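Reviewer 2 asked us to include a model.

Predict the structure of this chain.
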Amino acid sequence: MLSRTLEKTLRRALALANARQHEYATLEHLLMALSEDQDAVAVLKACAVELERLRMTLTDFLDHELSGLIVEGVVDAKPTAGFQRVIQRAAIHVQSSGRTEVTGANVLVALFSERESHAVYFLQEQNMSRLDAVNYIAHGIAKKPGTGAQKPVRGSGDDNPQPSPAGDGEKPRGEQPQATEALSAYCTDLNEKARSGKIDILVGRAAEIERTIQILCRRSKNNPLFVGDPGVGKTA
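Predicted model (structure tokens):
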């Protein structure tokens, strides 16, 4: 489900196209609308994007580079295929993450998949990458110091924190139970098995273990490779 803010943003993108008599609403119209979406703006600021500069660049592009989209008469702009892909991609990602609401922040991340678009170029022009956006949304790590959110970004999955068991008024960051359940279902926690004594002791491989530890502790080229005939204990 789209958030109310995002619904307004999408309508604003279509309105930007209609106001210029453009036959289609493009990714650039969408990015222009996102530059006024509170959830997307929080991410843009954290990624050190100058909003006024971005808006000026987009306005110039929409007014001068998309003249071929102008049609006479009453215009009801239609979203381009790229526009629709971005919204669908954001919705699929949110659904697969176990969340229920798509926000402007999610759409902004999905926009980066349209690598050949001018919209992505304008963001990259200000040294913003998809990783920058994801780091901020998921972990609150701002590229620009001092712009990190004091509370989780809407769309990160942590924007509905649960009260603490102690009832002291604190609200810790919400958990993501579905992600934890997936790890438990498909992965084996070898550390936990070792703590519980469920892993057999390796006998006669002290030198190999010592060498493996040394390799893993190196800053570079730290990938040990075990070579040997079948049955000699490589997996163990």
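Residues 1 and 101 are 5 Å apart (CA to CA). The domain at 4-139 is CATH 1.10.1780.10 (Double Clp-N motif). We have added this to the supplementary material.
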